[in-house]
Amino acid sequence: MTDALFEVRAVRYAYDSLPALNGLDLTIRRGSRVALLGANGSGKSTFLRLLDALDFAQEGTIRFDGETLTPERLDDDAFAHSFRSRVGLVFQNPDVQLFNATVLDELAFAPLQLRLEKQEIRQRIDHVMNELDIAPLAGRPPHRLSMGEKKRVAIASVLVIDPEVLLLDEPTASLDPRSQSEIINLLAGWSGDARTAVTATHDLGIVEDIADHCVVFESGRVVAEGPPREIVQNEELLYRTGLLHAHRHRHESGVVHSHPHLHRHGDHEHSE
Amino acid sequence: MRRSFIERTLAALLRAMEHAAASERLSGGRGFLQSVDPRVKLLGCISLIVAAAVSRRLTLLGVLFVAVAVVALATRIPAAQLLRAWAILFAFTAAIALPALFTTPGDAIGSVAGLTITLQGMRSAAFLVSRVETSATLGLILVASTPWSRLIAALRSLHVPAAVVLIISMTYRYIFLLLRTAEEMFTARRSRSVGALRPAERRRMATSTAGVLLGKSMTLADGVYDAMRSRGFRGEVYLLDDFRMRSRDWGAAAVFAAAAALAFWRGLR
Fold this sequence. Notes:
A: alpha/beta, Rossmann fold, six-stranded mixed beta sheet, disordered C terminus, B: mainly alpha, 2 domains, two-stranded antiparallel sheet, 9 helices, 75% helix
């Protein structure tokens, strides 16, 4: 068994004539926790869709555990079943992901499609509802939940299939600080030798908690890779890729001036 | 600023959706029919609706309506909600039935503004109104006493095609979101408008908003389909329906069956 779970080689993808990925090369190792960093429009979400085989590379190849992901391969029932059992994607917008009448139906959807036994489905649902503290929401319609609750249910709807690979698109976007913290704790706790997590984000404050490897995207290409601490300290790189911006800050002396914006563990780190 | 007809309609629809939320609370509470198996209620209500539709006796329809109203109150549907529903339905069906009073040939029993009202016309109008009121009350009882998800699962367990069940379920799920989006689009536009718009400008605004909303709906539909595929959807839908008939359900089924049989027998004689 090779250590590389996803092998991405010279991948190009465009929406009509608008390029999203421009010759992307990347290897994602089994058991790693990878953060995809990049500004809006840098290609992170498109890349996640390709990793989840919702779209396919127009040029280049993506191999998952040695198998090239193509529409024809996903047409094969056995492979599709195996792939969907092993890889789960949490969409950025939970209103897209939560399409069932109740939270319970939402959690049951994927295991039912994967034809698990109903007894096992119920056990999995109970387990994941307790893990994510969403049992009281079971009978509620998803559109009546808060954004934080929707995000937790969206994550639960994927975790219930017990995937090897968890793909997350901006999991903490649009959340209040408390909900962000809950999601980060959840993701930090989801790890293990056989578990691989790939998280697209532009929130530098969370990468050290959720990742052990960072990949920086710019204009559909990988422009840097490395450990989270090394990446978040490379201000020149972060400025260039739109991940760091100047903001106005008032000091106790009353002086107001601009400096880079970087939050970590509640402290306000900056260079002046 | 005075709101347009479309904005007022959207606001009214959103208020109706709030009523739907109240209905969910009612269906989860205590009441005469709340704890009965949804399949029994679904089949029972459909049978009675068909019996009302084919009945040739006004007295039977009257008895059925009174019985259904009593069950509705026992199911703890608020009387005010029932009266409002009946009033709206009456206004709507009476408007449709009105011409029948004058155009149906038969024995004259009076006249209004030179138009003759016939006994047969009155009977036709009374049949229409009483059938609609009875059937709608049965529908209201069904929806008010059954959580939406259980009703959907009941449809599936009665072998309604899974695709149809999924379409109904998702329509209910997303209509809230799209109505809210449409209302926000109108509000956003109004917040940037100065003064009253001319009718032509209002029409243009309404059509362009409808176009944008359609685009957003298409994007949402694509996203939802991708979310389904991502979780293993391959064209077939499976639901976690685990109904079990208890003695109370068998009892309710027997009452529904007897009532429907009696209504058919008496109504068709």
